[in-house]
């Protein structure tokens, strides 16, 4: 009987030890609450000071009504169009793993769309004269995801953690009759990038020595090194093996670790596909060139309508533009704003807008 009790005691002790060991293993991947609070503060600071992340707003907030390259005109004839916006709320929610984290950055903006133009059709033989200025209220929400990774174990979170990837920002007004469905970017060397879900496509922040090395060729290109858990560079697979490499072909949606790096004054072709409720031309613009520290190089250009096909009650349209990268280096965003044409040609039409952005670097 004593032997049986001894066996039972030993067995119970083994079960307890296994339970404790298993509990320890399950907690290995968790971040200590105090450490998480400190880490959250550090990642917030890293995000707030990151040039790639924060170059979006200087191009989204155009500061004034801007002249734009492109032709427009009927009813009201806009000569200068721009949006002046203020950031009214900003939230960054971070989910942690052992050595990685993903942040959801949501920014809310309020402001006005300024349309400076004339009710009289411009005369090509005479200088254009602005005789009316229309101001329309604008309220938007823009969302993007940010990936962080632990690159060292010094104990100082400021040194141990870096931003690894940034998704495309996307958002706009609550409703809009024009919705962006696809972006295609073609570089000078013929590489093509296609994106259909902006918050699921990540560009490498540029801190690449912990995952691989990205390079820019003589003409500038869309290139990257190794992706997370897989090759994300040219001719490789995306993160976790999702998505094909480029190799002169087309790179589709996915979490690809790439860095959009281009040379100065490099021509880039961009096509935007939209679903529109309206027949005829919408109003699509590209604003680029401003950086976190300066908006001096900001330029606004208008897309050209290339095709329109009716699909049920909507129209699937393709717009194109060829634009030059900036003459100065730095981290920037190219911001696409899509609106129904009535927004800028009808005094009574409220602002409807959808926005995508592309983070890139000029070297």
Strands, helices and their partners?
Blueprint lengths: L1 H26 L5 H17 L1 H4 L1 H5 L5 E2 L9 E20 L3 E19 L13 E19 L6 H4 E7 L2 E3 L5 E9 L5 E4 L6 E3 L15 E4 L2 E2 L2 E2 L18 E2 L7 E4 L4 E10 L6 E6 L10 E4 L1 E8 L2 E11 L5 E10 L2 H4 L8 E9 L1
Parallel strand pairs: 8-13, 14-21
Antiparallel strand pairs: 1-2, 2-3, 3-4, 4-5, 4-6, 5-9, 6-21, 7-8, 7-15, 10-14, 11-12, 15-19, 16-17, 16-20, 18-19, 20-21
Describe the structure.
The chain is an alpha+beta fold and 363 residues long. It has one domain. It has helices at 2-27, 33-49, 51-54, 56-60, 157-160, 342-345; strands spanning 66-67, 77-96, 100-118, 132-150, 161-167, 170-172, 178-186, 192-195, 202-204, 220-223, 226-227, 230-231, 250-251, 259-262, 267-276, 283-288, 299-302, 304-311, 314-324, 330-339, 354-362. Strands 1, 2, 3, 4, 5, 6, 9, 10, 14, 16, 17, 20 and 21 form a 13-stranded mixed β-sheet that branches. Strands 13-8-7-15-19-18 form a 6-stranded mixed β-sheet, with no helix packed on it. The protein is elongated and about 70 Å long.
> What is the alpha-carbon Rg in Å?
25 Å
Share of β-strand residues: 35-45%
Q: Uncertain runs with pLDDT below 50, 5 residues or more?
A: 19-30, 65-74, 207-258
Termini separation comes to 82 Å
Main beta sheet strand tally, sense and closure: 13 strands, mixed
The tally of strands reads: 21
Oligomer: single chain
Number of domains: 1
| Overall pLDDT metric | 76
The backbone outline, from C-alpha atoms, is elongated
| Number of helical elements | 6
**Could you state the order of secondary-structure elements as H and E?**
HHHHEEEEHEEEEEEEEEEEEEEEEHE
Relative helix content:
10-25%
- Given helix and strand content, the structural type is alpha+beta
């Amino acid at each position: 009987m004593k032997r049986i009790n001894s066996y039972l005691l030993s067995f119970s002790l083994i079960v307890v030890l296994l339970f404790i060991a298993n509990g320890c293993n399950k907690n290995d991947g968790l971040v200590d609450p105090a450490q998480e609070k400190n880490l959250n503060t550090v990642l917030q600071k890293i995000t707030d000071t990151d040039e790639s992340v924060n170059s979006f707003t200087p191009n989204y907030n155009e500061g004034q009504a801007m002249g734009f390259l492109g032709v427009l005109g009927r009813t009201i004839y806009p000569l200068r169009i721009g949006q002046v916006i203020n950031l009214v709320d900003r939230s960054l929610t971070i989910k942690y793993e052992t050595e990685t984290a993903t942040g959801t950055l949501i920014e809310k903006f309020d402001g006005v769309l300024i349309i400076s133009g004339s009710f009289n059709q411009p005369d090509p033989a005479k200088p254009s004269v602005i005789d009316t200025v229309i101001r329309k209220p604008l309220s938007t929400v823009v969302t993007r995801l940010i990936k962080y990774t632990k690159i060292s174990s010094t104990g100082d979170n400021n040194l141990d953690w870096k931003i690894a990837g940034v998704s495309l920002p996307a958002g706009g007004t609550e409703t809009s009759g024009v919705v962006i469905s696809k972006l295609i970017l073609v570089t000078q060397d013929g590489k093509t990038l296609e994106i259909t879900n902006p918050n699921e496509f990540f560009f490498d922040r540029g801190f690449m020595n912990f995952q691989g090395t990205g390079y820019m060729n003589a003409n500038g290109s869309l290139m990257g090194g190794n992706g997370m858990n897989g090759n994300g560079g040219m001719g490789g697979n995306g993160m976790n093996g999702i998505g094909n490499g480029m190799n002169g072909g087309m790179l589709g949606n996915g979490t690809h670790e790439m860095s959009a790096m281009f040379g100065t004054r490099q021509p880039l072709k961009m096509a935007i596909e939209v679903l529109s409720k309206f027949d005829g031309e919408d109003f699509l613009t590209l604003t680029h060139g401003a950086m976190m520290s300066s908006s001096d190089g900001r330029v606004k250009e208008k897309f050209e309508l290339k095709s329109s096909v009716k699909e049920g009650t909507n129209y699937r349209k393709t717009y194109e533009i060829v634009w030059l990268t900036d003459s100065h280096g730095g981290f920037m965003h190219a911001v696409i704003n899509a609106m129904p044409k009535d927004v800028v040609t009808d005094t009574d039409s409220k602002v409807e807008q959808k926005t995508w952005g592309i983070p890139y670097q000029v070297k």
